[in-house]
Design a protein that fits this description.
It contains twelve helices and eleven strands. The radius of gyration is 20 Å and the shape is globular. Bound molecules: alpha-D-galactopyranose.
Length: about 375
């Protein structure tokens, strides 16, 4: 079976506010060979020695491993599917991945989805893609982050050569063809987001701040009881109006978080039309605006991410931004195919040649090709 990573093109930190996002799956992926077991045990092995073997029994309450342990992503899907579909048989699996870990490319959701599909397959469960994506979005919160549903939905529902606008409540994916000559370059900051510690705490803090800012604004507009979501609010007022409103009613961090959320939502809509119309310059501009907003208003960037964005833009990328949760991880830059080598060279010379890192440069810097979602095949 195979389960891809993803890059989010635009729409960052707004999926958990129920607002649309615009990611694509990438060729980098997790691959697993597996076989059914006759008991309810899951045994996982990884070709990478740093992920030592794990074993657990499927049940409706599976004891989590230590924070950050890779078993937690498998346990997350096992527990959720057990709760939903009843007693399950397990599997033995050997897992391998060329997705960098803790780099904002959703290696964790790739594992959650991989385990879910293996359980679905060995137990003959009948479940639709969108239903499974929703179940797994809830499931992954077992591992700590109180995230939205973007990663699981794109990992399962992506189509080759397209990015997808994902709407929530109800979940829906609308594929948009990525123009042939567009290139999305992924560059790792070499800063790993500490998903069991500081980054997790900050991520969950952002989700709370967004919810708090929303209720304060709804209250101040006298809409309490009538409206309860960012989506409903944005259906009535423009992002511009709402940011103006927030200036009056919110202070400090909450004001900044709110401004990011409503404006980022607006950028997603504009980005969808830009891609549909082949307007690369327009799409790139929106990406760069998104980065500035994530840096100053949402405060999830870091010096290395900002530096990569600057280098890519100087070298002729139409736009660049951090992708994923931030606090480290990767940036994504957009350019025309004829500019690609120049941008890659600038990033290599001005960023990577000055730093030490494990593995090859291709693990840190590569072109992301829009790929299809997870699937299972039989030998
Ligand atoms: C993580 C979460 C997603 C989303 C992004 C930020 O990847 O898993 O749900 O919130 O961060 O956009």
């Amino acid at each position: 079976m195979k389960s891809p990573g993803r890059v989010n093109l635009i729409g960052e930190h707004i999926d958990y506010a129920g607002l649309s996002v615009f990611p694509m799956a990438v060729e980098r992926q997790m691959i697993a060979c597996f076989r059914r077991r006759s008991d309810s045990i899951v045994r996982l092995m990884n070709v990478e020695a740093r992920f030592s073997p794990r074993e657990f029994t499927l049940s409706s309450t599976i004891e989590p491993s230590a924070g950050g342990d890779w078993a937690n992503y498998a346990k997350a899907s096992g527990q959720e599917l057990f709760r939903h579909f009843g007693p399950l048989q397990g599997f033995d699996a050997l897992v391998s991945s060329d997705l960098p870990v803790a780099a904002g490319l959703s290696s964790s959701s790739a594992l959650v989805i991989a385990c879910a599909l293996m359980l679905v397959q060995v137990n003959g469960i009948s479940v639709g893609t969108l239903e499974l994506a929703e179940l797994m979005a809830r499931a992954e919160r077992y591992a700590g982050p109180q995230g939205g549903g973007m990663d699981q939905a794109i990992c399962l529902g992506a189509r080759k050569n397209t990015a997808s606008v994902i709407d929530f409540h109800p979940l829906r994916l609308t594929p948009v063809t990525v123009p042939d000559e567009w290139r999305f370059i992924v560059a790792a900051s070499l800063v790993q987001a500490d998903k069991a510690g500081a980054a997790l705490k900050e991520y969950n803090r952002r989700t709370r701040e967004c919810a708090e800012a929303l209720s304060t604004v709804i209250e101040s507009l006298g809409l309490a009881g009538r409206i309860d979501s960012y989506g409903a609010l944005l259906a009535h007022r423009t992002a511009e109006d709402l940011s103006g409103e927030a200036e009056q009613t919110l202070e400090g961090d909450l004001r900044k978080r709110f401004r990011h959320v409503v404006k980022e939502s607006d950028r997603v809509k504009k980005a969808e039309s830009a891609m549909t119309n082949g307007d690369r310059a327009g799409f790139g501009r929106l990406m760069s605006e998104s980065h500035l907003s994530l840096r100053h208003d949402f405060e999830v960037s870091c010096a290395e991410l900002d530096e990569l964005v600057d280098i890519a833009q100087d070298a002729g990328a139409e736009g660049a931004r951090l992708t994923g949760a931030g606090f480290g991880g990767c940036v994504i830059a957009l350019c025309h195919e004829t500019r690609m080598e120049t941008v890659l060279t600038a990033l290599t010379e001005r960023f990577y040649s000055k730093r030490r890192f494990e593995g090859s440069l291709e693990d840190q810097l590569f072109v992301a090709r829009p790929s299809e979602g997870a699937s299972v095949s039989s030998l």
